[in-house]
């Protein structure tokens, strides 16, 4: 595998020699590619495919590491090391012109905590009560996951867990930066921080920022224009808007309840309201 893992030897992971840590890291990439769910599945796969184990960096003339070695490694590896490896790969892909940071998309994915409250077969009426923290995961938080981003979509569900926020190059579909937060954190709250962290190692001046309606926040539009000279392509979020009331002759009724005889903009409507308030 063409991975720059030099930072692995400097990491604080407590498992094995640098070469073994690199092999363990590569094996977990294999685990994701092959969509294996458990470490036991990964071990069985490597034992039945020793050539893959060899390419990962294991000495196949000796027994593969134990289950506990794999588990300790994945638990102890520092997140900073993973981010550094990802940044190195992103910069290499930019050099090869596979990634171009011109059109960037940001979205989040719910990560469900491994707790019985998330089991759809559980009929506990209080399972999604904020004060009822899952015993199996003291760090997870209560969040809401919607089925789609369509306007008026009422198909949503509560869950205990986290959110994985991923910034993606829209040309290649490859991730550039990721951040994991607890489930209650709103998508728009971390958008600017993600862009700032990305810009620290990969300049994103002049980007086109693409996102769904969850990011329809005035501060995001302003900062992307101000800091990166960029443009936003975000659908409007109609969460706080009302349908304009019309008379039969298509004259709108302003917020003050007055009939507008000519087409007026929002500023004029607010002037009607302020005038009545002063009166």
Key words describing this protein structure:
279 residues, alpha/beta, disordered C terminus, 8 helices, flat, Nucleotidyltransferase, domain 5, 3 domains
Report on this structure.
The structure is a single chain. The chain is α/β, with parallel strands linked by helices. It has 3 domains: 6-77, no CATH class; 91-233, Nucleotidyltransferase, domain 5 (2-Layer Sandwich); 242-278, no CATH class. It has helices at 18-33, 39-48, 50-56, 67-76, 79-95, 187-199, 218-228, 266-278, and strands at 103-112, 141-146, 156-169, 175-182, 208-211, 231-233. Strands 1, 2, 3, 4, 5 and 6 form a 6-stranded mixed β-sheet that branches. Helix 1 packs across helix 2 (39-48). The longest helix is centred in the N-terminal third of the chain and has 17 residues, at 79-95. The chain is flat, with a radius of gyration of 25 Å.
Provide mean pLDDT, rounded: 83
Give the CATH class of the largest domain: Alpha Beta
Q: What count of domains describes the coordinates?
A: 3
Shape: flat
Q: Supply the CATH architecture of the largest domain.
A: 2-Layer Sandwich
Strand content: 15-25%
CATH topology of the largest domain: Nucleotidyltransferase, domain 5
- Radius of gyration based on Cα positions: 25 Å
Helix content: 25-40%
Q: Class by helix and strand content?
A: alpha/beta
Order of SSEs, N→C? HHHHHEEEEHEHEH
User: Runs with pLDDT <50, length 5+?
Assistant: 12-16, 262-279
C-alpha end-to-end distance: 75 Å
Secondary structure tally: strands? 6
Strand count, sense and barrel status of the largest sheet are:
6 strands, mixed
Put simply, the count of helices is: 8
């Amino acid at each position: 595998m063409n991975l720059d893992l030099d930072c692995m030897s400097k990491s604080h992971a407590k498992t094995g020699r640098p070469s073994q840590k690199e092999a363990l890291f590569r094996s977990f990439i294999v685990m994701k590619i092959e969509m294996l769910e458990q470490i036991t599945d990964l071990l069985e796969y490597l034992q039945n495919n020793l050539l893959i184990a060899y390419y990962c960096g294991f000495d196949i003339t000796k027994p593969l590491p134990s289950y506990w070695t794999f588990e300790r490694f994945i638990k102890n590896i520092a997140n900073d090391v993973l981010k550094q490896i990802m940044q190195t790969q992103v910069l290499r892909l930019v050099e090869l012109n596979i990634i171009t940071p011109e059109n960037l998309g940001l979205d989040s994915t719910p990560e469900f905590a491994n707790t019985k409250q998330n089991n759809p077969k559980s009929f506990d009426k209080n399972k999604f009560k904020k004060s009822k923290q899952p015993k199996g995961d003291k760090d997870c938080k209560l969040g809401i996951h919607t089925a789609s981003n369509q306007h008026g979509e009422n198909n949503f569900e509560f869950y205990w867990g986290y959110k994985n926020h991923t910034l993606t190059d829209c040309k290649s579909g490859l991730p550039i930066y990721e951040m994991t937060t607890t489930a209650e954190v709103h998508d728009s709250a971390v958008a600017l921080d993600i862009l700032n962290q990305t810009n620290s190692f990969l300049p994103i001046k002049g980007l086109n920022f693409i996102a769904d309606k969850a990011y329809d926040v005035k501060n995001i539009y302003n900062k992307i224009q101000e800091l990166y000279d960029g443009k936003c392509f975000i659908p409007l979020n109609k969460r706080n808007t009302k349908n304009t009331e019309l008379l039969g002759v298509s004259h709108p009724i302003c917020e003050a309840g007055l009939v507008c005889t000519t087409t007026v903009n929002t500023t004029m409507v607010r002037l009607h309201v302020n005038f009545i308030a002063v009166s």
